Amino acid sequence: MNTRSWTNLSKHCIARSNGLHRLILVFSGLAIFIACLGLYALAAYTTEQRTKEIGIRKVMGASVFQLSAMLSADFIKLVVISFAVAVPVGYFAMHEWLQGFAFRVEISWAIFLLAGLISVMIAWLTVGFESLKAARSNPMKSLRTE
After folding, report:
1. 102 partner at 20 to 30 Å CA-CA among 60, 68, 115, 134?
2. According to the model, what pLDDT value does residue 3 have?
3. CA 144 to chain centre
4. Measured between alpha carbons, how far is 126 from 39 in angstroms, rounded to an integer?
């Protein structure tokens, strides 16, 4: 084979890899968005179910920060547990996938730490909005409806 065909082949492989990268990026973003919508809906449902408790706590002197932390803590615990389950699975899947390449690359635990921090931050922002809305509501409205 001549050099021109190798150059064309390498350009074709790089272009194909870039297209796959964009496709994975788009669908990953879509999956994160759908997960955030589900988490928000679950937080809204939970705060709706606990309106009387929130109203009583607010009347008894709980601050907005305390109420928000109480509502967000359950969801953050769930995210941390799911992350703890996902890390070993992701590590072994990535390790097996990387073994198929000619150049060996070690997987850094910093990647997993960063992914965990980002997932907790996304969950906190998603749930935090709904919990702040519930914590700032008028407690008399919630107690009057019960």
Report:
1. 115
2. 60
3. 36
4. 7
